[in-house]
Amino acid sequence: MAALIMVRPDRDWQSSGGLFDWTLEYLIPRLSDEKTAEWLRAIVEENLGNLWIPDLPDEAQEEIFDLLRTGVVAAAAHELPPTAVDQLRELVALTY
């Protein structure tokens, strides 16, 4: 199953459902806003396969971008194959 993260209105990232879920599961325990964390958890549990970051509060958007920029690639390098890590680098680039 393909999945989609809308990073900004003109920037989106597509991945496999597994990598999408891994990315949200990376973010969930690190988010300070519990409401946003609960929303991401529901997306994973309900297998919705898409996240529109622009629909989230501005503070949550910035926190997600910061978490992606500062740690997701390093975490993925320990757990995922190189092709997945490369895809996550593409996601991080879209946050700028």
Can you describe this structure?
- The protein is of the alpha+beta class.
- It is built from four helices and three strands.
- Helix 3 (58-79) packs antiparallel against helix 4 (82-94).
- It is globular and about 30 Å long.
Write the SSE topology.
Elements: E1 2-8, E2 11-16, H1 17-27, H2 34-45, E3 50-52, H3 58-79, H4 82-94
Parallel strand pairs: 1-3
Antiparallel strand pairs: 1-2
Helix pairs in contact: 1-2, 3-4
What's the short version?
With 96 residues, the chain is an alpha+beta fold.
Derived from helix and strand composition plus strand pairing, the structural class reads alpha+beta
**Number of helical regions:** 4
Distance between the termini: 27 Å
* Uncertain spans: none
Give the strand content. Answer: 15-25%
Q: Any descriptors?
A:
96 residues; alpha+beta; three-stranded mixed sheet; 4 helices; 3 strands
